[in-house]
Structure formats: C-alpha cells, structure tokens
Amino acid sequence: MTARPDEGKHVPDHPIGIHHVEIGVGDLDRSLDFYQGLLGLQRAEVPEPPGVRWLSAGSALLKLVETVSGDLGGWINDDLQRGIRHVGFTVGDVDLQADRIRDAGIPFTLPPLDAVGGVRLAFFQDPDGTHLEIIDKHLQYHKVSSPELADRERAAAEARPRTAGPSFGHVAVTVDDLDATLAFYRDTLGYQVIGQISQNQDPRGFLLTYLQAGESVLEVFTFTAPTTPSPWAPEANRHGFRHIAIAVDDVDKARARLVAAGARETVDGLLVDADGIPLRPVDGR
C-alpha cells in the first residue's frame, strides 16, 4: 500500500536542511562572470582555498570548484535519469530575468512558459552544462500536505519585488520509489511535505512532491514510466552537480542515521542515497 506523503513516522527535534550545492566548473573566472555578473549572486564570507569560490544565493550557498579537465560524467538533460536534475532560483519576474539571460547570449533549454501549478518558469544551463531554473509566483498545489508551509510560500511570493533577482529556491531530484524517498528524507531527516503537483498531461506519469528542507525545498520527481540509473560517481574532476550538502546538528549522528536508512558511504565523507543522489552532512550549528 502506498503511504500518504504526510504520514511521517518520526520528525527529529531539529529538522535539517540544504546548506549548499557543490558544482564543478571548468573555468572559475568564467563561472563567476555567469553566477555573479549575470545572475547577481554575491560572494559569501567563507574561507576559500585555491580553485574554490562560495556564493550566497539566499537560503543556501553555491560552492564552485574548478576542475579544468572535467565533464558532466554521464549526466544528460532527461528527467527520467535519476539523481540531481537542477537547481531552481525564485525571481520576481521570469520574463524580466529571461531578457537579461537572453541578452547575454545564453540559450534556453526551455524558454519562459506558464506551467502547471500557476507558476512561470524557464530553464537554461551554466557554461559547463549545469541545469538551472528560474521561477516566479508560488505553486498552487493540487494536494496540500502542510497548509502552513504553502501559505508561507504564497506570502513570500506576494512580497517579492518584480525586480528581484535569482535567489536559491530548490534542488530537484528524480527518484525511483516515492515511498522509499519519503522514508529517507521525511522520516529520517525531518523534511516536511508541503504538497504535490500532478502533471496529468504528461504521458510519463509525472508527479512532483515538495519537501521543506530547512529554508529551501527539495523537489522530488517521480514517474510511472521507467527511470534510468544515476550516472553519478565520485570523480574529482566532475563538472556539474557534485553533491548536496545538508546542515545538521551533529555530523556523526546524522551520518549514522542516514547509513541506517540506506545511504552508502563513498569517498571523502560523501554519502549516496538509493537513487544515486550524493549528500554531504555538514555542521549547521
């Protein structure tokens, strides 16, 4: 029997959330021109070893790591491929921001359009192929699990100025089994389900489930159509999405809980969930 999204077994006293997303880039200066110069993100006050830059994106950080000879490691722009799919930024007006992106010569993988759920969005890629989204307004969920969180999103969208530039909103992931994913992220990490959007017109049987992950959101894609495995592997020279860092109160205890819930340990302290999504617990105190 399929569990309801809001049927949580245990919510930790201190829910943990997205701290940063690490992205591999081929040319740090070129990427700073893109993320700072074009998107308007700010340098974060974080110690930076050579080849690393931290950017403040609102509710979370981006960590850019220069890997000159890397590639996307098998990642393709197909949401049926499990793993990390994109980072989404909220903006005041998608078309206003899209004009700036278009004027900079950046092509759209999906031009601005009105989407199911009452939002407007567009997709594009950074200079190394990392997939990004801009989205405005607030989601009108088909099924609401937390009216309080949905109302908070609505209030934030209504207060956002039209000229507001990109601010970190969510990380999207594709998974094979929604029940297993909820057991991992909701029951183990305490990420509360906000609601769901059903893409009934999509022949792939596309369902989106949204979980509150600290001040950001984890957007979970599931399909009735078959999905393909994540190609992620811990290559040091990987471009694109390298991992999601999650802030926790106690790194060792969080790691033990995640491993007990099915994550496997890889190199350099990274964990990987059942769908090939790389996670790094970090101290959020």
TrEMBL record:
Family annotation (SUPFAM superfamilies): Glyoxalase/Bleomycin resistance protein/Dihydroxybiphenyl dioxygenase
Molecular function in Gene Ontology: lactoylglutathione lyase activity; metal ion binding; methylmalonyl-CoA epimerase activity
Alphabetic keyword roster: Metal-binding
Biological process per Gene Ontology, one example term: L-methylmalonyl-CoA metabolic process
Residues covered by the VOC domain: 17-137, 167-285
UniProt-listed InterPro entries: Glyas_Bleomycin-R_OHBP_Dase, Glyas_Fos-R_dOase_dom, Glyoxalase_1_CS, MMCE/EMCE_epimerase, VOC_core
CDD domains, per the entry: VOC
One Pfam family cited in the UniProt record for this chain: Glyoxalase
Top-level taxon of origin: Bacteria
Name by which UniProt lists this protein: VOC domain-containing protein
Organism field: Planotetraspora mira
Origin organism lineage: Bacteria, Bacillati, Actinomycetota, Actinomycetes, Streptosporangiales
